[in-house]
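Severity: low
Component: inverse-folding endpoint
Summary: output formatting inconsistent between runs
Steps to reproduce: submit the following C-alpha coordinates with default settings.
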Protein backbone atom coordinates (compact mmCIF):
# COMPACT_ATOMS: atom_id res chain seq x y z
CA UNK A 1 0.00 0.00 0.00
CA UNK A 2 1.06 3.60 -0.58
CA UNK A 3 3.11 5.07 2.33
CA UNK A 4 0.64 7.96 2.65
CA UNK A 5 -2.24 5.53 3.21
CA UNK A 6 -0.16 3.55 5.70
CA UNK A 7 0.70 6.75 7.59
CA UNK A 8 -2.85 8.13 7.80
CA UNK A 9 -4.36 4.77 8.74
CA UNK A 10 -1.62 3.97 11.33
CA UNK A 11 -0.39 0.95 9.41
CA UNK A 12 3.29 1.12 10.36
CA UNK A 13 5.49 -0.39 13.11
CA UNK A 14 4.91 0.93 16.63
CA UNK A 15 2.19 3.23 15.29
CA UNK A 16 0.37 3.58 18.62
CA UNK A 17 3.55 4.37 20.52
CA UNK A 18 4.72 6.92 17.95
CA UNK A 19 1.49 8.89 17.59
CA UNK A 20 0.80 8.85 21.34
CA UNK A 21 4.26 10.28 22.02
CA UNK A 22 3.84 13.07 19.49
CA UNK A 23 0.41 13.82 20.92
CA UNK A 24 2.03 14.19 24.35
CA UNK A 25 4.78 16.39 22.88
CA UNK A 26 2.15 18.66 21.32
CA UNK A 27 0.37 19.03 24.66
CA UNK A 28 3.64 19.72 26.47
CA UNK A 29 4.66 22.33 23.89
CA UNK A 30 1.28 24.06 24.18
CA UNK A 31 1.76 24.44 27.94
CA UNK A 32 5.43 25.40 27.65
CA UNK A 33 4.61 28.10 25.08
CA UNK A 34 1.59 29.30 27.03
CA UNK A 35 0.98 29.10 30.79
CA UNK A 36 4.54 27.91 31.47
CA UNK A 37 6.39 30.17 29.03
CA UNK A 38 8.70 31.36 31.84
CA UNK A 39 9.38 27.73 32.83
CA UNK A 40 8.58 28.60 36.45
CA UNK A 41 5.56 26.34 36.95
CA UNK A 42 5.92 23.47 39.39
CA UNK A 43 6.88 20.37 37.40
CA UNK A 44 3.87 18.32 38.53
CA UNK A 45 1.48 21.17 37.76
CA UNK A 46 3.04 21.52 34.30
CA UNK A 47 2.96 17.75 33.74
CA UNK A 48 -0.70 17.38 34.69
CA UNK A 49 -1.67 20.40 32.58
CA UNK A 50 0.31 19.04 29.61
CA UNK A 51 -1.33 15.61 29.98
CA UNK A 52 -4.86 17.03 30.03
CA UNK A 53 -4.08 19.40 27.16
CA UNK A 54 -3.08 16.45 25.02
CA UNK A 55 -5.39 13.74 26.33
CA UNK A 56 -8.52 15.35 27.77
CA UNK A 57 -10.64 13.54 25.19
CA UNK A 58 -9.00 10.17 25.75
CA UNK A 59 -9.26 10.68 29.52
CA UNK A 60 -12.92 11.64 29.86
CA UNK A 61 -14.96 10.91 26.70
CA UNK A 62 -15.29 7.15 27.23
CA UNK A 63 -17.03 7.84 30.53
CA UNK A 64 -20.13 8.94 28.60
CA UNK A 65 -20.37 5.44 27.12
CA UNK A 66 -19.64 3.61 30.36
CA UNK A 67 -16.28 2.43 29.03
CA UNK A 68 -12.93 2.50 30.89
CA UNK A 69 -10.78 5.51 30.10
CA UNK A 70 -7.82 4.81 27.83
CA UNK A 71 -5.51 6.57 30.27
CA UNK A 72 -6.12 3.75 32.77
CA UNK A 73 -6.72 0.89 30.35
CA UNK A 74 -3.66 1.35 28.11
CA UNK A 75 -0.20 1.92 29.61
CA UNK A 76 1.04 3.38 26.33
CA UNK A 77 -1.06 6.50 26.82
CA UNK A 78 0.25 7.52 30.23
CA UNK A 79 3.74 6.29 29.43
CA UNK A 80 3.84 8.51 26.36
CA UNK A 81 2.80 11.48 28.53
CA UNK A 82 5.87 10.94 30.68
CA UNK A 83 8.15 10.61 27.65
CA UNK A 84 6.68 13.61 25.79
CA UNK A 85 6.90 15.84 28.86
CA UNK A 86 10.50 14.78 29.48
CA UNK A 87 11.51 15.49 25.87
CA UNK A 88 10.09 19.02 25.99
CA UNK A 89 11.11 19.99 29.52
CA UNK A 90 13.95 17.83 30.83
CA UNK A 91 16.47 17.20 28.05
CA UNK A 92 19.83 18.94 28.67
CA UNK A 93 20.18 22.56 27.52
CA UNK A 94 16.52 22.64 26.48
CA UNK A 95 17.39 20.86 23.24
CA UNK A 96 14.05 19.02 23.08
CA UNK A 97 12.07 22.23 23.49
CA UNK A 98 14.23 23.94 20.87
CA UNK A 99 13.93 21.16 18.26
CA UNK A 100 10.19 20.77 18.76
CA UNK A 101 9.79 24.53 18.43
CA UNK A 102 11.39 24.73 14.98
CA UNK A 103 9.17 24.73 11.91
CA UNK A 104 10.24 21.18 10.99
CA UNK A 105 9.74 19.96 14.55
CA UNK A 106 6.30 21.54 14.75
CA UNK A 107 5.35 20.15 11.33
CA UNK A 108 6.33 16.58 12.27
CA UNK A 109 4.57 16.87 15.63
CA UNK A 110 1.43 18.26 13.96
CA UNK A 111 1.27 15.46 11.38
CA UNK A 112 1.71 12.57 13.82
CA UNK A 113 -0.59 14.10 16.45
CA UNK A 114 -3.21 14.47 13.72
CA UNK A 115 -2.79 10.80 12.78
CA UNK A 116 -3.70 10.03 16.41
CA UNK A 117 -6.87 12.15 16.04
CA UNK A 118 -7.76 10.45 12.76
CA UNK A 119 -7.74 7.13 14.57
CA UNK A 120 -9.96 8.69 17.23
CA UNK A 121 -12.61 9.71 14.69
CA UNK A 122 -12.76 6.23 13.17
CA UNK A 123 -12.44 4.30 16.42
CA UNK A 124 -14.99 6.26 18.43
CA UNK A 125 -17.49 6.27 15.55
CA UNK A 126 -17.10 2.50 15.23
CA UNK A 127 -17.55 2.07 18.98
CA UNK A 128 -20.74 4.13 19.12
CA UNK A 129 -22.20 2.36 16.09
CA UNK A 130 -21.43 -1.06 17.58
CA UNK A 131 -23.12 -0.03 20.84
CA UNK A 132 -26.31 1.36 19.29
CA UNK A 133 -26.76 -0.48 15.97
CA UNK A 134 -29.28 -2.95 17.37
CA UNK A 135 -31.61 -0.21 18.62
CA UNK A 136 -31.96 2.49 15.93
CA UNK A 137 -34.82 4.97 15.95
CA UNK A 138 -37.94 4.18 13.90
CA UNK A 139 -37.03 6.97 11.49
CA UNK A 140 -33.78 5.58 10.05
CA UNK A 141 -32.35 2.06 9.78
CA UNK A 142 -29.16 2.87 11.71
CA UNK A 143 -28.33 5.15 14.66
CA UNK A 144 -27.54 8.58 13.21
CA UNK A 145 -26.31 10.95 15.88
CA UNK A 146 -24.39 8.80 18.37
CA UNK A 147 -21.59 7.72 15.98
CA UNK A 148 -21.16 11.35 14.91
CA UNK A 149 -21.38 13.09 18.28
CA UNK A 150 -19.19 10.63 20.21
CA UNK A 151 -15.99 11.29 18.17
CA UNK A 152 -16.87 14.99 18.04
CA UNK A 153 -17.00 15.08 21.84
CA UNK A 154 -13.60 13.36 21.89
CA UNK A 155 -12.07 16.17 19.84
CA UNK A 156 -13.59 18.99 21.89
CA UNK A 157 -13.19 17.74 25.44
CA UNK A 158 -9.96 19.71 25.90
CA UNK A 159 -11.61 22.96 24.87
CA UNK A 160 -14.48 22.46 27.30
CA UNK A 161 -12.09 21.53 30.10
CA UNK A 162 -9.90 24.58 29.50
CA UNK A 163 -12.48 27.31 28.88
CA UNK A 164 -15.82 25.91 29.98
CA UNK A 165 -18.88 26.04 27.72
CA UNK A 166 -19.11 29.83 27.57
CA UNK A 167 -15.40 30.45 27.16
CA UNK A 168 -15.03 27.79 24.49
CA UNK A 169 -18.12 28.68 22.46
CA UNK A 170 -18.32 32.46 22.82
CA UNK A 171 -16.77 33.15 19.39
CA UNK A 172 -18.99 30.72 17.51
CA UNK A 173 -18.48 27.09 16.52
CA UNK A 174 -14.85 26.13 17.23
CA UNK A 175 -12.82 24.56 14.45
CA UNK A 176 -12.65 21.19 16.21
CA UNK A 177 -16.46 21.08 16.22
CA UNK A 178 -16.57 21.91 12.50
CA UNK A 179 -13.98 19.27 11.71
CA UNK A 180 -15.38 16.67 14.09
CA UNK A 181 -18.95 16.89 12.84
CA UNK A 182 -18.03 16.88 9.14
CA UNK A 183 -15.43 14.10 9.30
CA UNK A 184 -17.46 11.91 11.66
CA UNK A 185 -20.59 12.30 9.52
CA UNK A 186 -18.77 11.32 6.32
CA UNK A 187 -17.01 8.39 7.95
CA UNK A 188 -20.17 7.14 9.68
CA UNK A 189 -22.49 7.21 6.68
CA UNK A 190 -19.90 5.92 4.20
CA UNK A 191 -18.76 3.08 6.45
CA UNK A 192 -21.80 2.04 8.49
CA UNK A 193 -24.92 3.02 6.54
CA UNK A 194 -25.61 -0.05 4.40
CA UNK A 195 -29.39 0.44 4.12
CA UNK A 196 -30.25 4.11 4.58
CA UNK A 197 -30.60 6.45 1.64
CA UNK A 198 -27.76 8.72 2.81
CA UNK A 199 -25.12 6.00 2.89
CA UNK A 200 -26.37 4.26 -0.24
CA UNK A 201 -26.43 7.50 -2.24
CA UNK A 202 -23.06 8.60 -0.89
CA UNK A 203 -21.37 5.36 -1.95
CA UNK A 204 -23.08 5.36 -5.34
CA UNK A 205 -21.57 8.78 -6.02
CA UNK A 206 -18.16 8.32 -4.41
CA UNK A 207 -17.28 4.63 -4.80
CA UNK A 208 -16.37 4.71 -8.53
CA UNK A 209 -13.82 7.42 -7.76
CA UNK A 210 -12.78 5.65 -4.57
CA UNK A 211 -11.86 2.46 -6.42
CA UNK A 212 -9.78 4.39 -8.96
CA UNK A 213 -8.01 6.35 -6.22
CA UNK A 214 -7.20 3.23 -4.23
CA UNK A 215 -5.88 1.53 -7.38
CA UNK A 216 -3.55 4.46 -8.00
CA UNK A 217 -2.38 4.17 -4.39
CA UNK A 218 -1.43 0.54 -4.90
CA UNK A 219 -4.33 -1.14 -3.13
CA UNK A 220 -5.07 -4.78 -3.84
CA UNK A 221 -8.54 -6.04 -4.79
CA UNK A 222 -9.66 -6.50 -1.18
CA UNK A 223 -8.44 -3.05 -0.11
CA UNK A 224 -10.20 -1.35 -3.05
CA UNK A 225 -13.54 -2.66 -1.82
CA UNK A 226 -12.90 -1.72 1.82
CA UNK A 227 -15.25 1.19 2.53
CA UNK A 228 -13.85 1.71 6.03
CA UNK A 229 -10.27 1.99 4.73
CA UNK A 230 -11.22 4.53 2.08
CA UNK A 231 -13.35 6.60 4.45
CA UNK A 232 -10.56 6.69 7.02
CA UNK A 233 -8.08 7.70 4.31
CA UNK A 234 -10.30 10.55 3.08
CA UNK A 235 -10.85 11.79 6.63
CA UNK A 236 -7.11 11.51 7.19
CA UNK A 237 -6.19 13.53 4.11
CA UNK A 238 -8.61 16.28 5.10
CA UNK A 239 -7.59 16.42 8.76
CA UNK A 240 -3.85 16.30 8.04
CA UNK A 241 -4.12 18.97 5.35
CA UNK A 242 -6.12 21.28 7.61
CA UNK A 243 -3.75 20.72 10.53
CA UNK A 244 -0.76 21.77 8.41
CA UNK A 245 -2.53 24.70 6.76
CA UNK A 246 -3.71 26.00 10.15
CA UNK A 247 -0.17 26.14 11.55
CA UNK A 248 0.82 29.69 12.64
CA UNK A 249 3.50 29.84 9.93
CA UNK A 250 0.92 29.22 7.17
CA UNK A 251 -2.77 30.26 7.16
CA UNK A 252 -3.06 30.35 10.95
CA UNK A 253 -5.48 28.83 13.47
CA UNK A 254 -8.37 31.09 12.44
CA UNK A 255 -8.59 29.55 8.97
CA UNK A 256 -11.65 27.40 8.25
CA UNK A 257 -12.61 26.22 4.74
CA UNK A 258 -16.24 26.01 5.85
CA UNK A 259 -16.40 29.60 7.07
CA UNK A 260 -14.51 30.75 3.98
CA UNK A 261 -17.14 29.17 1.71
CA UNK A 262 -19.99 30.59 3.82
CA UNK A 263 -18.47 34.08 3.66
CA UNK A 264 -18.01 33.84 -0.11
CA UNK A 265 -21.58 32.68 -0.67
CA UNK A 266 -22.88 35.37 1.67
CA UNK A 267 -20.98 38.03 -0.24
CA UNK A 268 -22.28 36.77 -3.60
CA UNK A 269 -25.88 36.58 -2.42
CA UNK A 270 -25.97 39.93 -0.65
CA UNK A 271 -23.96 41.96 -3.16
CA UNK A 272 -22.87 45.55 -2.56
CA UNK A 273 -25.64 48.09 -2.53
CA UNK A 274 -25.17 51.81 -2.51
CA UNK A 275 -26.19 53.29 0.78
CA UNK A 276 -28.92 55.96 0.61
CA UNK A 277 -29.04 58.39 3.51
CA UNK A 278 -32.51 59.01 4.96
CA UNK A 279 -31.29 61.67 7.38
CA UNK A 280 -32.96 65.12 7.09
CA UNK A 281 -30.72 67.99 5.92
CA UNK A 282 -28.82 69.80 8.65
CA UNK A 283 -29.50 73.43 9.63
CA UNK A 284 -26.32 74.62 7.90
CA UNK A 285 -27.45 73.10 4.59
CA UNK A 286 -30.83 74.80 4.97
CA UNK A 287 -29.13 78.18 5.49
CA UNK A 288 -26.96 77.73 2.40
CA UNK A 289 -30.04 76.97 0.31
CA UNK A 290 -31.74 80.20 1.54
CA UNK A 291 -28.64 82.27 0.63
CA UNK A 292 -28.67 80.89 -2.91
CA UNK A 293 -32.32 81.85 -3.27
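Observed output (run 2 of 3):
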Amino acid sequence: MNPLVDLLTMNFPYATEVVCTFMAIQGSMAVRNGPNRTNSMNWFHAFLKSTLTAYAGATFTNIFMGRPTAMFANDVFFGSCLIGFAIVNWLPFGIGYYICGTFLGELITTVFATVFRIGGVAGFSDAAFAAFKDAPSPYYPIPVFGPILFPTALANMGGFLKGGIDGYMEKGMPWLFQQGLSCSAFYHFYTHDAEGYVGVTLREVVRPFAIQIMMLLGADEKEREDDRLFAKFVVGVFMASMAVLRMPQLLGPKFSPFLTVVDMLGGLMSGKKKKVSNKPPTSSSKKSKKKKQ
